Amino acid sequence: EKVPYPVAALVEPFAVGEGAAYNADVQAGETVAIIGSGTIGLTILLMTLLRNPKKIFIVDQSKSKLEFASSLGADAVNFRNTDPVEYIKGKTDGVGVDVAFEAVGLTPSVQTTMKVTKTGGRAVWIGNSQQMVEVDMQDVVVGAKTIIGVYSYNDDNFGNAVKFIENNLKTASLFVEEEVSIGEAQDFYTRLANGEKELLRGVVNIYG
User: Fold this and answer.
1) Cys-Cys crosslink for 172: which of 8, 48, 152, 165, Cβ 3.0 to 4.6 Å?
2) Alpha carbon distance 181, 163 (integer Å)
3) Which run of H or E residues covers position 201?
4) 3-state secondary structure 106-127
5) pLDDT tens digit sequence for 165-207
6) Can you list the positions of beta strands (E) in 24-149?
7) 181: alpha, beta or left? (left if phi > 0; alpha if psi -120 to 50)
8) Is pTM, for the whole model, over 0.90?
9) Which residues contact 28 (CB under 8 A, 6 or more apart)?
10) Dihedral sign, Cα of residue 184, residue 188, residue 189, residue 191
11) C-alpha gyration radius of the chain
């Protein structure tokens, strides 16, 4: 009851993030990389932090989203000016991370995910943009890397997302960057589609 409707609408993407962290079986003390700092990448970050990893890297090109990720506790890497593979391997003694999340869904981000995953590590694919991607099969086989595909979440993941938002309302509220009424929705979506806006989440409030 204490959660406003616009923030409560975020339960679904937070459940996706929780489902990804759950299926990756992130353990305390492990190193983690997240490729993509959109809403899903950031919810993965928050839900993974609950599992007490040793270090979390996040990779993107959006300065504002990377700054937000850094404020949440990630080591943010802008691939426009830093090679993420070199950076992450340099920070992990040349080994790579235990778990790498792909939260974009394009060949370059998938390839980066696989390159930063250590031998015997887990790569978790959540991104769903490009139907066919290219990967280095020998890297996967010789490196004994496990690829886990995650599309959604289960009931427990959804419940955990609800609890997280209830207990971290201030943080969750930061994801609602703009709120519009149902009458403003068409123009709002048009501006998003035209690239005139870059938001984590905009919320159409039918009660407003």
Assistant:
1) 165
2) 27
3) strand 201-205
4) CHHHHHHHHHHEEEEEEEEECC
5) 999 999 999 999 899 999 999 999 999 999 888 888 889 988 7
6) 31-35, 55-60, 75-78, 97-102, 117-125, 146-149
7) beta
8) yes
9) 51, 52, 53
10) positive
11) 17
